[in-house]
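Lecture 7 notes: from sequence to structure.

We start with a single chain of 381 residues. Read the sequence below before looking at the structure.
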Amino acid sequence: MRATRHFQLIALLAIAGCIRAPITSIGPQITAISKGQNLGIVQFGFLTAIPVICFAVAAPLPSLRIFRRIKTEQLIVFALLALAAATILRTLGSNSLLFGSTIILGISIAILNIVTPALVRRDYPKKITTVMPIYSAVLALMASLGAGLSIPIAAYFGDNWKIGISVWAIPAILVALIWIPLLRKAKPMPDTHENHFKELFRSKKAWLVSIYMGVQSAIFYTQVAWMPKILIDKGYSAAEAGALFGLSTLCGFALTLILPLVFSRGEDLKLAILATSVPGIVGFLLLNHLSNSWTIPALLLISTTHAALPLALGLIAMKSPSVGATSHLSSMAQGIGYCIAAIFPVLIGYTYEASNSWLIATYLIAALILAQSIIGIKANR
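Now the structure, written as tokens:
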């Protein structure tokens, strides 16, 4: 029994290993993709925003009746296989296929994003504050690998950007194979037949959690879309920019390993919320106004913002009134939150194109980080 639960936990954590690299591998390839597919800056910004838009649109899906008939483990396997297929298909043809497959990719990841907190609440109710930060650490690690290895992989195969991003279908296939044996003991999420949305939409706490999810997601996905380009415009090569952004997400991974120590002290996350926001503001100011010798220190400070995700997921799990309501709060937080997040990659791209400078754009990101800290503290009360 204990061995089975350990295998289930490994399978759960493995989901995190395949849902970030297909997204973060795109940014470092901006030059190759834009040239190969004839995309402008705003079009590329929209391409990077598509998964975030899908996260918002697909957020209510697991709460629909047709999805409630599917056992959680079955839904996970389906989403993983769809993710793998979409990751490959988006490299095989026209812009229509590129954008269409990215929509499927986004919906698949959205489903996995939503069911994970509820699954943790169902199977590990006393270990939420340990499991979610570890899950988020795996997310950050794979996000780092996606950003850092996309260019080297493409270079190894003759500067083929399509291989550089399609290779990230392999983890999704492997994780689906891990989950298939668990289908024999699949079970539905308890209490999911009840509709908790009316209760949650009346809750100020639920709204604060949702907005916090949106703001921290906007900060992360804006960096995924544009940090490599910011670094390229500072004089770094595409490979160097990908490696530097990979370093930043890797440091975020390290911070998520420290967060369980903060969680273990109770549900007061104020210190962790400040630690994942204030340094990021300083980092963007350094990146804006100082020479390239300050790039790595600036990115190290900015990397703290990558560790805000476990706080958002932890708030969803801890502030939910019941196990059944957790998936609904997750849907609400991700639906509303990703509507907020989807705006910013496009807005930042448009701001850059209009001003031909990253100055105003990075000030906007710094202001967003400040808003994140204020909203997070209020959600934590």
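The mean pLDDT is 84. Keep this in mind for problem set 3.
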